[in-house]
Amino acid sequence: MLFTWGALIQALLMLLVKASQRSFRDVSNCELNQKQQSDLNSFLWTIKRDPPSYFFGTIHVPYTRVWDFIPDNSKKAFQESSIVYFELDLTDPYTISALTSCQLLPQGENLQDVLPRDIYRRLKRHLDYVKLMMPSWMTPDQRGKGLYADYLFNAIAGNWERKRPVWVMLMVNSLTEADIKTRGVPVLDLYLAQEAERMRKRTGAVEKVEEQCHPLNGLNFSQVIFALNQTLLQQESLREGSVQVPYTTEDLIKHYNCGDLNSIIFNHETSQVPNFNNITLPPNEQITAQEIDSYFRQELIYKRNERMGKRVKALLEENPDKTFFFAFGAGHFLGNNTVIDVLRSQGYEVEHTPAGQPVSSGRSPKSPTIPLHAPYSTGQELEPSPPPGALPP
Ligand SMILES: *[C@@H]1O[C@H](CO)[C@@H](O)[C@H](O)[C@H]1NC(C)=O
Ligand SMILES: *[C@@H]1O[C@H](CO)[C@@H](O)[C@H](O)[C@H]1NC(C)=O
Ligand SMILES: *[C@@H]1O[C@H](CO)[C@@H](O)[C@H](O)[C@H]1NC(C)=O
Ligand SMILES: *[C@@H]1O[C@H](CO)[C@@H](O)[C@H](O)[C@H]1NC(C)=O
Q1: From the CA of 283, how far away is ligand 2's center (Å)?
Q2: What's the pTM value of the predicted model, to 2 decimals?
Q3: pLDDT tens readout for residues 223-247
């Protein structure tokens, strides 16, 4: 139940999308039973070489909600790849604990000391409300799995007074009824990581926890307070029933399943931070919103795409005879300055691979597999390896 980078980017993107005037809500329903394999979405790209490697765009929602919409060729590419790389190694307890501690305020500081009094009070009131409502938000299915409201609340929000404001803001965004209902099933990226382990594939990560955490902590104080204030204003309106949920995980799932590569939230051009209540922001707040947006694009998308692309290239060069499956958040493959663009600029041919198009089964192995070099990954830095049964909830 901890925040991972994928969740974070997704939450931020949702914040940005909320501000958009685009019609994200009128996505036509993608009924699976009316679909042929060839009609399905595809978040698969092939890196042309012999054997090929793959990029796959994941999403941070329960895998059961999207799995049936993922084309067979994407699944085959995953199965046939001997090495699977993620943004971060989510199955490594070190990753999780490093992410957790990165979210904390410096030793001895407390949110109450840091936040404007009004914001702190509203935050506390809102979290009290969430705690009260949580039992009624949970589904019978979740209860059947032994998930308890108190446990869930504590897992997500337990230590909130010690978190940095930006993480509290993201936490508040994920504490909605709709999001709570999705808890308890592994999200797609985590599921793939678990499957890769189960299938004894070599796994690794292209980023270090620190590389992910620092940019977010780099949003300055007034920007964070602005975003937290807007988030609280939105939640308060929801509580009063004066606005509808403006954007939910459900919409995101629909977009992913409908596979609208152009309109998907990850590739949003006119983004501006939240105009949550659909009230025009005063000019100075609009500027703050735009500054957050451009900071976000630059630091959390473009710079990371550049770094991820370079590491992908290094991995491919170190292992010319291996088939890689790089499973990163879909947002890294859509829009400007994507990871794909980085690879192309390095001379690689990368093609979108629609559903129904056969994926090459790769070169047949010439010789028995020889042990590989140490992976270019955070694997080393992230020692020790997980004790059995230590997977995050
Ligand atoms: C935060 O950043 C913005 C834009 O760079 C700047 O205008 C503002 O003064 C900064 N605020 C603080 C508290 O540093
Ligand atoms: C929160 O936002 C509202 C509306 O934009 C504004 O009037 C208020 O001053 C803000 N509060 C803080 C503490 O920034
Ligand atoms: C992508 O780049 C084009 C051209 O520079 C620009 O007009 C557009 O706004 C950019 N899109 C995003 C999502 O930044
Ligand atoms: C937001 O405002 C615009 C115009 O001001 C309106 O067309 C739109 O329907 C509003 N959206 C919501 C969700 O209320």
Answers
A1: 13
A2: 0.79
A3: 899 889 988 988 898 888 876 665 5
